Amino acid sequence: MRTRRVPAILAVLVLLVVVVGPFVAPWPPGETVGRPFTGISPEHLLGTDKLGRDVLSRLLHGGWRLLLITTAALACAYTVALPLGLLAGLRRRADGWVMRPVDVLVVLPWFLLLAVLATVAGRGAPALLTAGALATLPWVVRLVRTAALDEASAGYVEAAVARAEPWRRIAWREVVPNIAPVVLADAGMRLTATLSVVTVGGYLGLGLPPDVPDWALAVATNQSGITLQPWAVLAPALMIVALVVSVNLLVDARSDGTLATGARRTGTASDTAVVEVRGLTVAGADGHLLLAEADLTLRAGRGLAVVGASGAGKSTLARGITATLGPGLAATGDVALRRADGAPGRVLGWVPQDPALALNPGLRISAQLRDVLRAHHRRADTAAVRAALAEVGLPDDRAFSRRYPHALSGGQQQRVLVALALVGGPAVLVLDEPTTGLDPAAVTGVLDLLRGLRARGVGLIVVTHALPLVLDLVDDVAVLDAGRVVSVGPAAPTTLPQVDDALPRTVRPTTAPLLAVRGLAAGYGRARVVADVDLDVGVGECVGVVGHSGSGKSTLARCLVGLHPPDTGTIALDGSVLARRAGSRSRAQRGAVQFVVQNPARSLNPRHTVGEELRAPIRIFGTTDEPSELLRRVGLGTELLDRRTDRLSGGQQQRVAIARALAAGPRLLVCDEITASLDPHNRQAVIDLLDRLRDEAGLSILFVSHDMEAVTGLADRIVTVTGGTVVSVDEVVVAGRQA
Q1: What band does 519 get if pLDDT is binned at 50, 70 and 90?
Q2: Tens digit of pLDDT for each residue in 18-58?
Q3: Cα torsion at 274, 278, 281, 282 (round to 10°)?
Q4: Beta strands per DSSP E along 464-556
Q5: How far apart are CA 94 and CA 110, in angstroms?
Q6: Interval 554-582: pLDDT, tens
Q7: Phi-psi region for residue 482, left (φ > 0), alpha (ψ -120 to 50) or beta?
Q8: How far is CA 691 from CA 154, 607, 730, in A?
Q9: pLDDT, tens only, 195-247
Q10: How confident is the model over 97-124, as a mean pLDDT?
Q11: Contact assessment for residue 413 and residue 352, using Cβ atoms and an 8 Å cutoff
Q12: I want to staple 246 with a disulfide (CB 3.0 to 4.6 A). Which of 10, 146, 186, 223 is the partner?
């Protein structure tokens, strides 16, 4: 709060001068009341200016025009830039048409633009307003476009696209609430930039007429007499500086408070520890504790696994240690860091959970590496990029480094995140679920990479649901439950619940096909990802789709729901061929095929309540289900209806995502890695839920997964995909019989 108080007081004082000043000025601003450049006197508290006018009176009259023109220019810029940025970010076909003119405005010097406007339209407020708006507009468009591109890949946006909601509704309902904090934070910086344009324009004489009281004009007009009467220049200049500085400090303070309040960083840990956590507590905006009084110590070169059920606080602990807490979270306690060698440098490297979301989708891999290299004062040339990629076992050729994140497999994306985290040679790497959603080969590759880092003396803090996979990487295990560290002890083999221990499988007879896919081929640009796929899914049948990362499983799933148009082939539902895009399908066809995506946190809009998420498909498809009944069907209580989705645990989020899909009245549920980020208990609960829905409603399921235990526990047939092609279709044997 103290960080906000001083700039807030300064800003209020400046605003008081701007608003009240004209009413309390002792002299008319244009009246000559003394000799030019008279010093301070009882009659003229700040002296007189070049023409003998009272400096204080002109100061009190000179702020409102400047602030009004600046605010109007900023409002005009955002009014135009926000829809343009959304259009470019959400409609790829419009991207080029929007961004080419924007790029021209970026390289065009604003003072040249102002000079042209002043020459054509005449000097005055319109020229200043237009120049300020045009100077601000391209940067706002770029910011909004980048933020919208990131949101476009979110599960809740794709769900809205699959429902064929108009893009304008998707933009304003799904995207804008989530990019608003970024846009508002940027607005403060844009205000100071626009104010600079307007101020310098007035100083150069391209704005308001010379006789108009204006702070910028006062500086320009009286600079020749600064040695005779310095207050004629210093007073208006100080008002401009006070306005700019107070706005900048307020924006910085507000951004820090919006993102998170961090725990106290106490500088160095004890002699034997590189990370020492004492009393770390994290609370949400509503006061709900996500983490309570956590104490942990990691000594140099050692490894620590953090385990617990979904919602236990594992990721919150990791983000509290690395100071990367999300919006609205406040942390207290102490986090002490040091390097074992005592040398200055980076202590922590952070690898967040979902690499597809952590990497910037609009930047090439090389560009992202260069940004981090520069941030840590390292060389950012081609050789440094190649060395960073080679360190984590990735190809270091130019073709690979110029790829965008979506062109990489999950394992490659994870390695890129590790490469970014290793820049600067951190003593400890903090990883949140590093093996989640990866196929067995990719998991092996990531684990081998981490073993190599341990051999080099890099400490590890690994948040995981799969403790057996990382047991040989860690020395100790911390167990969390309900936001508290309940135990810390030596790593030891732990038996996790197996799918085979679940309830007995029901054997279902083979049925007529509900979905028939023939000759399906799809790709990205010239790269073919799915090739000549034939696939049937019967009524009430579950078909599992397995294969390594990058084999085309997710692309196949997206084709079925109309989010990725196939190049060739047909998709038929009950004998009727479906259109390539969801928007071109009938409402009944869109409702019949529903999609549940991998990451539960990104599957639901974090700005919406559970009730809002469930009512959207009910409104679109006209079903008769009530949100409370949908929650009951997926095993959740109605008390969650008014809770925001980002306040749910991972297991709850995934059940709500399934409930949202059920609200459309589907006949086929396409599930893409929906158990990948869940702990064993919640994974089994979701599998049991899907199995029950098949029994109750005759629901057909296409279940894409790397988890063979989950697939064999649910599927009747397993389709193996390699290189975008179906290489085998196998019946699942249950208790000695074929399903």
Answers
A1: very high
A2: 889 899 999 998 889 999 999 999 999 999 998 899 999 99
A3: -10
A4: 476-481, 484-490, 513-524, 527-538, 542-546
A5: 26
A6: 889 999 999 889 999 999 998 899 999 98
A7: left
A8: 27, 31, 19
A9: 777 777 766 766 677 788 888 788 888 888 888 999 999 998 898 888 878 87
A10: 78
A11: no
A12: 10
pLDDT in tens, 407-445: 777 778 888 888 888 888 888 888 888 877 666 777 788
Phi-psi region of 151 (alpha: psi -120 to 50; beta: other; left: phi over 0): alpha
Residue corresponding to tokens 């344009």: 197
pLDDT in the model for residue 270: 46
Whole-angstrom distance, CA of residue 231 vs CA of residue 222? 9
The CATH number of domain 502-738, selected from 3.80.10.10, 3.40.50.1100, 3.40.50.300, 3.40.1790.10: 3.40.50.300
The answer to whether the 65-212 and 264-490 domains have the same CATH topology is no
Class in CATH terms, 264-490: alpha beta
Burial class of residue 140 (count of CB atoms within 10 Å of its CB; 0-12, 13-18, 19+)? buried
Does the structure show a pLDDT above 70 at 501? no
Would you say domain 65-212 falls under CATH 1.10.3720.10? yes
Looking at the chain, the whole-number percentage of residues with pLDDT higher than 70 is: 88
Q: What would the two tokens of residue 502 be?
A: 């679940």
Contacts with 175 (C-beta within 8 Å, 6 or more apart), sequence order: 86, 89, 90, 148, 151, 152, 157
353-382: b (≥16 Cβ within 10 Å) or e: bbbbbbbbebeebbebbbebbeeeebebee
pTM of the shown model: 0.67
Q: Where are the domains of the chain?
A: 1-26+45-62+217-258, 65-212, 264-490, 502-738
On whether the CB atoms of residues 50 and 220 are closer than 8 A, the answer is: no
Instruction: Quote the distance between the C-alpha of residue 470 and its chain's center.
Output: 28
Q: How high is the mean pLDDT of the chain?
A: 82
The pair of structure tokens assigned to 92 is 């790829």
For 522, the token pair is: 């799809």
Query: Count of CB atoms within 10 A of residue 196's CB?
Result: 17
| Residue in 185, 313, 317 with CA at minimum distance from that of residue 257 | 185
φ and ψ at residue 567, rounded to 5 degrees: -80, -45
Length of the chain: 739
